[in-house]
Amino acid sequence: MPAPAATSKRKKVTLTPGHSPLDWARLKSSIQPPFPFRKIPLSEVKQHKDRNSPGGVWTVLNGKVYDMAPYLAFHPGGEDELMRVAGRDGTRLFMLTHSWVNVDAIVDACCIGIAVKDD
Ligand code: HEM
């Protein structure tokens, strides 16, 4: 039986040494997310889409804003895939790609606020 289309399109990504899920778990525990979270307008999220900027790489997932910069090199789907949602709401693409992945369990430490519409 032929493999399903989604499976045949899978592209293997090689993570650089030191970027396994276990390495991420270790690094993640050293990140101190802001408390309390603030409301972040989407126009501000848009300004954080450059991976070389010190301001971070922000995306919105399920109404929360994440700075993905520390996670980029650890993403099993590769940095470029993750950068596709930089500076914008990535919920739809995230769900299309891997609805089974538990965002909160993996990048909870990267949450920096709650996304709100601009006034
Ligand atoms: C911060 C948010 C994200 C987290 C925590 C995350 C996490 C993961 C994890 C754990 C995997 C491995 C899944 C598995 O092997 O079953 C994965 C794979 C992948 N991710 Fe993400 N991801 C995120 C965002 C995204 C986004 C926004 C996209 C698309 C634009 C994306 C595209 C992919 C792709 C293409 C793969 C490879 C899937 C495959 O092997 O077929 N990811 N991601």
TrEMBL record:
<dbReference type="GO" id="GO:0046872">
    <property type="term" value="F:metal ion binding"/>
</dbReference>
<dbReference type="GO" id="GO:0004128">
    <property type="term" value="F:cytochrome-b5 reductase activity, acting on NAD(P)H"/>
</dbReference>
<feature type="domain" description="Cytochrome b5 heme-binding">
    <location>
        <begin position="37"/>
        <end position="116"/>
    </location>
</feature>
<protein>
    <submittedName>
        <fullName>Cytochrome b5</fullName>
    </submittedName>
</protein>
<dbReference type="InterPro" id="IPR036400">
    <property type="entry name" value="Cyt_B5-like_heme/steroid_sf"/>
</dbReference>
<dbReference type="InterPro" id="IPR051872">
    <property type="entry name" value="Cytochrome_b5/Flavoprotein_Rdt"/>
</dbReference>
<comment type="similarity">
    <text>Belongs to the cytochrome b5 family.</text>
</comment>
<dbReference type="GO" id="GO:0005737">
    <property type="term" value="C:cytoplasm"/>
</dbReference>
<dbReference type="InterPro" id="IPR018506">
    <property type="entry name" value="Cyt_B5_heme-BS"/>
</dbReference>
<keyword id="KW-0408">Iron</keyword>
<dbReference type="Pfam" id="PF00173">
    <property type="entry name" value="Cyt-b5"/>
</dbReference>
<dbReference type="GO" id="GO:0020037">
    <property type="term" value="F:heme binding"/>
</dbReference>
<keyword id="KW-0479">Metal-binding</keyword>
<dbReference type="InterPro" id="IPR001199">
    <property type="entry name" value="Cyt_B5-like_heme/steroid-bd"/>
</dbReference>
<keyword id="KW-0349">Heme</keyword>
